[in-house]
Design brief:
The chain is mainly α. The chain has 7 helices and 4 strands; from the N terminus they run αββαααααββα.
Length: about 150
């Protein structure tokens, strides 16, 4: 699986750039373009830590390559640049383990491109007070990933 500028740009668009470490919505320390210690790219964000934009770009590139290497072998069909970009952005957001068990991957591998694209839209919920609710930011991201996946943008 390739890591393309289109894929990196899609990730950047939704992760945003934050040069100081912060806790994400799940309480995980994060920095740069959504980089956490779990990415395993040589940074362990701590409160008070800052990085440069260049460092953020490097950590994103390293994490994207790592994720692509992890999910690539599970993808059994040739991909367009848009499909590759959307699947990488999706995996970067949900994590490679969730991607590998997703209906998005199963449907894509089965040749059901539209089913895979629509399955992206299922990944936009969060738990609040024990109840699953639609996260509007995630829904916006999934709609954008779906459009890129289908070659609509």
């Amino acid at each position: 699986m390739n890591v393309t500028e289109r894929g990196l740009d899609l990730i950047k668009r939704f992760e945003g750039l934050v040069l100081s470490a912060y806790r994400d919505t799940r309480g995980i320390l994060t920095i740069g373009y959504g980089t956490t210690a779990a990415a395993g790219v040589g940074i362990d964000p701590q409160l008070g830590m800052t990085i440069t934009k260049e460092q953020a770009e490097l950590y994103l590139a390293l994490a994207a390559r790592k994720f692509a290497d992890r999910i690539g072998p599970a993808i059994k069909r040739a991909m367009t640049v848009g499909e590759e970009a959307a699947l990488l952005s999706f995996a970067y957001n949900v994590g490679p383990g969730a991607f590998l068990g997703s209906s998005v991957l199963r449907k894509f591998n089965a040749g059901d491109k539209l089913g895979a694209a629509n399955a992206l839209l299922l990944w936009c919920k969060e738990t609040k007070g024990g109840v699953k609710v639609v996260n509007q930011g995630l829904l916006k991201r999934r709609k954008a990933e779906r459009a890129v996946f289908l070659g609509e943008s």
